[in-house]
Design goal:
Layout: E1 3-8, H1 19-29, E2 34-39, E3 51-53, H2 59-75, E4 80-84, H3 87-93, E5 98-102, H4 114-126, E6 128-131, H5 134-144, E7 151-153, H6 160-164, H7 170-177, E8 184-189, H8 201-206, E9 214-219, E10 233-237, H9 244-249, E11 253-256, H10 265-272, E12 277-280, E13 297-298, H11 302-314, H12 316-329, H13 335-347
Parallel strand pairs: 1-2, 1-4, 2-3, 4-5, 5-6, 6-7, 8-9, 8-11, 9-10, 11-12, 12-13
Helix pairs in contact: 2-3, 3-4
């Protein structure tokens, strides 16, 4: 059985980020791989057999601690290392065996400190980079002068079983969330930052203020949380990923106005629940949705977002058609398929 060390920056059972999906992948992988999980911050996942949660918080001590753990695992025969986003973990892992480094965003859009940028680029150079789409691979190769053969594509995945359990339960979801049964719900789920387009929620919601049936359900936390308000906005704070399917069950439209994305798990979540999407055309978003959604993946513009949301809220047949397309399309990203057809073969590269 192949041995692999998997480094995850953070985990809690009630975590609101996509790291919950990583735990589901590792659970799926345990029967086929000898996995040892290192959690840099947080708590031990209940259903993962071999786990080490780092104890130190002071960065120099944490780096030294991680180095010792990686050395001990190398002595136990682990030669393949997979690091999710943590470039420090990726750099250290590269000294002990074959290193895969997952990164899927648009980091070139934002300035880093000189030291942070240096170590990020070092991680890219020392490891096999794994990103989410062919388009994202091309961007990383060109912008960071990477060898194409050392950059690999692995799509994100989704546990369809977990989401299927809430399909068709809109009334129940709305009762639990205190949302009227006859409301038209536009759902936003992301970090409340400009980077994720949260600054556009207010202006877009304001365009629907005269329609008392339209409600913007906003889930997330971040620097813009205190500035998002309005008579038709329901702000619920950060939602644990395990509860996310219920929120999508309550929604009519998913709204993602980000200025930066890679391969957003939230798009897979919306499609898994058959919720039509209005999203900004950034990163790999257009590559991961069915062609039928093309008109609703647009440039980051409030006026266009408003028009597209109005279409989906008023045209029931259109919304139903897109929902059906999404439900069929998302099957290719199911956890078991991505694990068997993409993740396992990549480890043999």
């Amino acid at each position: 059985m192949k041995k692999i060390v998997y480094i995850l920056p953070e985990y809690r059972d009630d975590i609101g980020t996509h790291f919950y999906h990583n735990r589901e992948l590792l659970e799926c992988a345990q029967d086929k791989l000898d996995i040892f999980l290192i959690v840099e911050k947080g708590e031990r996942p209940a259903n993962i057999k071999n786990v080490y949660v780092q104890k130190f918080r002071f960065l120099p001590l944490r780096i030294f601690e991680l180095k010792l753990v990686l050395f001990a695992l190398r002595m136990r025969g682990y030669k393949t290392f997979w690091t999710h986003y943590s470039f420090v973990g990726s750099i250290l892992a590269s000294f002990f065996g074959k290193s895969f480094y997952w990164n899927c965003g648009m980091p070139w859009l934002y300035r880093r400190g000189v030291v942070e940028e240096y170590f990020f680029r070092l991680a890219l150079q020392r490891s096999n980079l794994v990103t989410g789409t062919e388009g994202m691979k091309k961007e990383y190769v060109e912008r960071y002068h990477l060898k194409p053969e050392r950059v690999h594509v692995l799509p994100n995945w989704i546990n369809l079983e977990r989401f299927n359990s809430w399909r068709g339960r809109k009334r129940e979801a709305r009762e639990q969330l205190g949302i009227p049964h006859d409301a038209k719900v536009v759902f936003f789920l992301h970090r409340l930052s400009k980077r994720k387009g949260a600054d556009l929620i207010g202006p877009v919601a304001k365009a629907f203020a005269d329609n008392t049936k339209v409600l913007f359900l906003v889930a997330g936390s971040g620097p813009l949380a205190s500035s998002i308000s309005g008579p038709n906005i329901k702000l619920v704070g950060e939602v644990a990923q395990r509860d996310v399917p219920m929120y999508f069950a309550a929604a009519d439209v998913f709204f993602m106005p980000s200025e930066e994305e890679g391969f957003p798990h939230v798009v897979l979540e919306a499609m898994a629940m058959g919720v039509p999407i209005v999203a900004a055309d950034v990163g790999g978003v257009r590559e991961i949705v069915p062609d039928a959604l093309g008109d609703f993946i647009t440039r980051q513009d409030s006026t266009i977002f408003i028009q597209k949301i109005k279409i989906l809220l008023s045209d029931t047949k259109m919304a139903q058609m897109l929902a059906a397309k999404e439900l069929e399309w998302v099957k290719k990203y199911s956890l078991d398929i991505v694990f068997a057809d993409r993740f396992i073969p990549m480890l043999r590269v």
